[in-house]
Specification:
The protein is of the alpha+beta class and about 170 residues long. The chain contains 4 helices and 10 strands. The protein folds into 2 domains: about 45 residues; about 120 residues, Acid Proteases (Cathepsin D, subunit A, domain 1, Beta Barrel), CATH 2.40.70.10. Strands 2, 3, 4, 5, 6, 7 and 8 form a 7-stranded mixed β-sheet that branches. Strands 1-10-9 form a 3-stranded antiparallel β-sheet, with no helix packed on it. The chain is globular, with a radius of gyration of 23 Å. About 25% of the residues are buried.
Length: about 170
C-alpha cells in the first residue's frame, strides 16, 4: 500500500511539468518542419534547378525519386498524361484508397483498366521539386513500376534529351 501511495505522490508531483515537456517536444518538431520548409523555399528561389538522368541499358530513363519522403524508382514517361502509381506504392506513401475509388477507365497497351485518382503532395528528384501532382493509382497487377508523367513534368520549365541523358530544368 505504501508503494502505491509513493507512486501516486510522484505522479501528482510530475503532473504540472508534463504539459511543458510535451509542448517543448512538439515545438521542436514544428521548428524542424519550419526550418525544412524555409530551406526548400530558399532552394526554389536560388535560380533554375537541374537534374540529369542517364538512359539505362533498356533505353529507359529511371529517376531516383522521393514521393512524400519515400524513396521510389520511377520510369519517366513523357507519353503518360498522368503520373501513375501501383496501389502498393500509393499506400507506402500515404495514399489510401478503397475498391470503390477505382472507377476511372484507363486505356493501356493491354486494354482498359480502372484507376483511382489521387494527388501526390511532394515529389523530389535530385534538386527538382514537384508539388500537388495529379496521379492515377492502378492495381499492382496492372502497373508494375511507377510512371512520372506529364502531370509532374508539366511543372518544369523544360526537359531535354540528348546523348542518352534526360535533363530536367525547373
Amino acid at each position: 500500500m505504501l508503494r502505491y501511495l509513493v507512486i501516486l505522490l510522484l505522479l501528482v508531483g510530475l503532473a504540472p511539468v508534463v504539459p511543458s515537456l510535451v509542448e517543448a517536444r512538439l515545438g521542436a518538431s514544428d521548428r524542424t518542419k519550419h526550418a525544412e520548409r524555409e530551406r526548400e523555399d530558399e532552394e526554389e528561389s536560388a535560380g533554375p534547378r537541374r537534374h540529369r538522368i542517364s538512359v539505362d541499358r533498356r533505353g529507359h530513363y529511371v529517376a531516383d525519386a522521393y514521393l512524400n519522403g519515400r524513396g521510389v524508382d520511377m520510369l519517366v514517361d513523357t507519353g503518360a498524361t498522368l503520373t501513375a502509381l501501383p496501389a502498393s506504392v500509393a499506400s507506402d506513401i500515404g495514399i489510401f484508397l478503397s475498391s470503390s475509388d477505382y472507377k476511372h477507365p484507363i486505356g493501356t497497351a493491354n486494354g482498359t483498366v480502372y484507376g483511382a485518382r489521387a494527388v501526390i503532395d511532394k515529389i523530389k528528384i535530385g534538386a527538382i521539386r514537384f508539388r500537388n501532382v495529379d496521379a492515377i493509382v492502378l492495381k499492382d497487377d496492372s502497373l508494375g513500376v511507377p510512371l512520372l508523367g506529364m502531370s509532374a513534368l508539366g511543372q518544369l520549365k523544360r526537359f531535354d534529351i540528348s546523348s542518352g541523358t534526360l535533363v530536367l530544368v525547373q
